[in-house]
Amino acid sequence: MSAALTAVERERLTRRALGLARLTVAWNVVEGAVAIAAGVAAGLVSVVGFGIDSGIESVAAVLVALRLSARLRHGTADERAERRTLKAVAVTFFLLAAWVTVEGVRSLTSAEPPDTSVVGIVLLAVSLVVMPVLAEVKRRVGRRLGDPLVLADAAETRICALLSASTLVALVAFALTGAAWLDPVAGLVIAAFAVHEGREAWEGELVCDDDHDDHDDDEHDDDLHEGEPSTERR
């Protein structure tokens, strides 16, 4: 954590990060349930895959919330147990990628085209508005705290926004053109994102990527905490 923060500021930011994690869980549970229901009803692999990914994002947010809650209560957290749980989340991403890939290939070879889904399109459009804003707020809080897990959670949320964009483009294009191959191709894009998320969750590289982004941002933007000492060495 940054040495420039007082104990009161640190607690306030930690509580804010906890609130953001809880908001992420609530949003993704609803988003995932609606997406899976809409995807199954329309036979859209990409929408079902997006809904499952939302569930996995909820698990990651729960891990963040548990750590922050423990920190507020005791000031410490079980890093080893948390790391094992994160690896378990990584495995679920790999399973998601495998399922979406199999279903995508099956859809490409199937003669039965999926239906369009207005519910899916609206859900993805709303997600595309909410997720980038939520990711940026998390990133700012994580930078102020110098907390790698909050920064990793922000990176996960940014990936969710990218998934919303890719899936929405495919659904709108399918609704306009009727090209059935667009849905399974979007599903394969989700599979690629899931493998990426899983690999970085397993290896702990999300933090490194976000820290690199922070260095780039700091060259152009000092509005978060101008004059704050570097948090690279703690």
Largest sheet: none
Helices and strands, in N-to-C order?
Answer: HHHHHHH
What number of domains? 1
Q: Based on CA inertia axes, which overall geometry fits?
A: elongated
| Overall CATH class | Mainly Alpha
Question: What are the SSEs and their pairings?
Answer:
Layout: H1 7-42, H2 45-74, H3 79-109, H4 118-145, H5 148-177, H6 182-203, H7 205-218
Helix pairs in contact: 1-2, 1-4, 2-3, 2-5, 2-6, 3-6, 4-5, 5-6, 5-7
Question: Can you characterise this structure?
Answer:
It is a multi-pass membrane protein. It holds the Pfam family Cation_efflux. The protein is an all-alpha fold and about 230 residues long. The protein has one domain (about 5-215): Alpha-lytic protease prodomain-like. Helices cover about 80% and strands about 0% of the residues. It contains 7 helices and no strands. The chain has helices at about 5-40, 45-75, 80-110, 120-145, 150-175, 180-205, 205-220.
Descriptive tags:
7 helices, elongated, disordered C terminus, Cation_efflux_TM, Cation_efflux_TMD_sf, single chain, mainly alpha, 234 residues
How do you describe this structure in short?
With 234 residues, this protein is an all-alpha fold.
